[in-house]
Design brief:
This protein is mostly helical. It is built from three helices and no strands. It has one domain. Helix 1 packs across helix 2. The longest helix has 44 residues. It starts with a helix and ends with a helix.
Length: 84
């Protein structure tokens, strides 16, 4: 799975898990096996969310690096908008 597909997959897991957990009613927790199913869903949600956080941090760093690179180039070669 490539990077973008993994991001999309993690987003789907997060949203599907949240939708599932929102529908859980306290009385249903008493059904045999239900608590374990909910814990597994919570674990999947947290893993996917942490991976998304990490990916967003990496993207933020890349955006900042590119912004700085472009700013340096504009300072070195001049901003064409200012030359008009």
């Amino acid at each position: 799975m490539d990077y973008i597909e993994q991001l999309i997959s993690n987003l789907r897991i997060v949203y599907a898990s949240l939708a599932f957990l929102r529908q859980v009613e306290e009385l249903k927790l008493l059904v045999a096996g239900r608590a374990e199913q909910i814990r597994q869903r919570e674990d999947a949600l947290l893993i996917a969310y942490r991976q998304l956080e990490s990916s967003i941090d990496e993207l933020s760093q890349q955006v900042e690096e590119e912004r700085q690179r472009i700013d340096r180039a504009l300072q070195q070669y001049g901003d064409p908008e200012k030359l008009r």
